C-alpha cells in the first residue's frame, strides 16, 4: 500500500492536471501499467512466465503501455499519458524516472542476454524518444522528445536529435519539468 500512495503522490507532483489523489488513482493509465507490471514481474521472477506474459498483454490492451514482465522498474516511476510506451525484457529503469508517451526502451539485437537500455535514477524521457540497445542513460539526464539514443548518455546530460547528441545539463533534473530543460 505504501508504494501505491507514494506513486500517486509522485504522479500528482509531476502532473499539473491531476486534481486529486482519488482521480489520479482512477484515471492514470501509466500508474495502472506500473502497478500491473509489479505483479507480472513477481510472476516472471517466480517461474510463472506464461501467466506473466499473458497478464502483461492484457495490461497493454487496457492501458496502451507494454512493459515486459522481465523488465526491472524502480520506485516512483511515472509514465505521463502512457499510450504507446514499450519497455523491453532486459530494460532496467531506476528510481524517480519520468517518461512521456510514445517512448521505446528497445533492443537492437536478437541475441540472448542484455538487449535493452538501463535508465539510471532521476531521468526524464521526452515524448516519442527511442532508446535502443544495451546502453546506459546516466543519472540526472534528460532525453529530448523524439530523440533516438543508441550510445551511452553521461550522467547529468541532455540528449537530443537523430541520432542523439549530448551536452551537459545546467542543474539537476529532479523536480524539474520537461519544459524547464
Structural commentary:
The protein is an alpha/beta fold and 181 residues long. The protein has 4 helices and 15 strands. The longest helix has 17 residues, at 29-45.
Strands, count: 15
Beta-strand portion reads: 15-25%
Task: Profile the largest sheet.
Answer: 6 strands, mixed
Tell me which oligomeric state these chains represent: single chain
Low-pLDDT sequence parts: none
Average pLDDT over all residues: 90
Cα end-to-end separation: 33 Å
Strand order of the largest sheet: 3-6-9-12-14-15
Shape category: globular
Helix content: 25-40%
Topology order in helix (H) and strand (E) letters: HHHHEEEEEEEEEEEEEEE
Strand-pairing-aware structural class: alpha/beta
In short:
The protein has helices spanning 2-14, 21-27, 29-45, 49-63, and strands at 65-67, 72-73, 78-79, 85-87, 92-93, 98-99, 104-106, 118-119, 124-125, 130-132, 136-137, 142-143, 148-149, 157-160, 165-168. With 181 residues, it is of the alpha/beta class.
Please tag this protein with its features.
six-stranded mixed beta sheet, 15 strands, alpha/beta, 4 helices, 21% strand, 181 residues
Topology record:
Elements: H1 2-14, H2 21-27, H3 29-45, H4 49-63, E1 65-67, E2 72-73, E3 78-79, E4 85-87, E5 92-93, E6 98-99, E7 104-106, E8 118-119, E9 124-125, E10 130-132, E11 136-137, E12 142-143, E13 148-149, E14 157-160, E15 165-168
Parallel strand pairs: 1-4, 2-5, 3-6, 4-7, 5-8, 6-9, 7-10, 8-11, 9-12, 10-13, 12-14
Antiparallel strand pairs: 14-15
